Each structure stands twice: as structure tokens, then as C-alpha cells.
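Review form for a predicted model. The reviewer records the input and the model, then writes brief findings.
Reviewer: anonymous (R2)
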Amino acid sequence: MNIGYARVSTSGQSLEIQMDKLHQQGCEKLFREKKSGGSRIGRTELEAALEFVREGDVLVVTRLDRLARSMHDLVQVTQELERKHVGLVVLEQELNTTTAAGKLLFHMLGAVAEFERSLINERIAEGVTKAKAAGVKFGRKEKLTVAERESLRQEFNTPGVSKAELAKKYRLHRSSLYRLAQDTKN
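Model under review:
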């Protein structure tokens, strides 16, 4: 069974052209939505289409960017389709994973994208290393100063002090209180 998915980003755009193309491809069931393609989050019709497809079905989209804008999302969607043994046809890019040549082309494109992603990750890691060497601190700001942590440790080890009251005083969760009380590096 051919299942169609159409998406436009704004309410001012029309789904009609995509819907006509999907009907011409013989799509028996159509899912459509007006949502940004920047992320899979909130795209309920895409999720419904992925839930609906069964082994042997083919998901048809007019263009690859209608399915996903990010390589991460595209890989997730296609892996989900592969797991369910569902083909993917992209009309304008003439990509068809139900054929051997289509699978080869898709995997080659995926390999290039993965390589590109690896290069990006390497550049990010280099930037983080350089920033740390320059003294940039990453992560959440420390909740307590060094003096407050030292005071907390002294109070924590004082007999008869309520740990619940101590946590409340320093605005900490009890697990954080115990962790900070045991931490000796600062």
C-alpha cells in the first residue's frame, strides 16, 4: 500500500500540489500537516504515518525536505521505516528505497551525511578544548560558593543537625546535600 505524507511550513502555503502528486502516485492513505520541518517534535501527522505503515508498504513524499529538514531526523525516520520493512519513495529526487539502486543511493547519501556530521563533531570538540584551555567554564553555574560549601560540610558533620533543615537552608535537594558534603575537591 502506498501511504502519502505532505507537509507545508506555514498556514499561508497550500498542500494541494503535494496532495495531487501523491494521489497520482496511487497513495491510498494520506497524512498532511502544516508544521515547521525543523524538528520531528510536534509533527503529529508524521508520527501517525510512521505508526500506520506496515511491512510491505511504501511511504511516499514529494520532496525529501517534506519528510525531514535535519539529517538526524531523516536518519531516524528512515531507520524506523527499515525496521518495519517499509519502502520510501521521494518523487522529486527520484529516490526509491524499494529498488536496489535506490537503496544504494540512499545509503551513499547517508554515508556522506554521517561523514559530514563526524567532521562537525570534531570541530566542536576542538572548539570546546580550546575554550576550556582559555578558562571558559561549561555547564550549570555552581549553586554554592566555595565558602558556602565549606560551611555546609562543617554543619553537616555537626552531631544533631537535621539534614532536612540543612538542605532547606542551602536550597538543595537531599541527595545534593549528601554529595556536596562528601565532595572534598572544593
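Findings: The domain at 2-100+107-111 is CATH 3.40.50.1390 (Rossmann fold).
Further findings: The mean pLDDT is 87.
Recommendation: see findings above.
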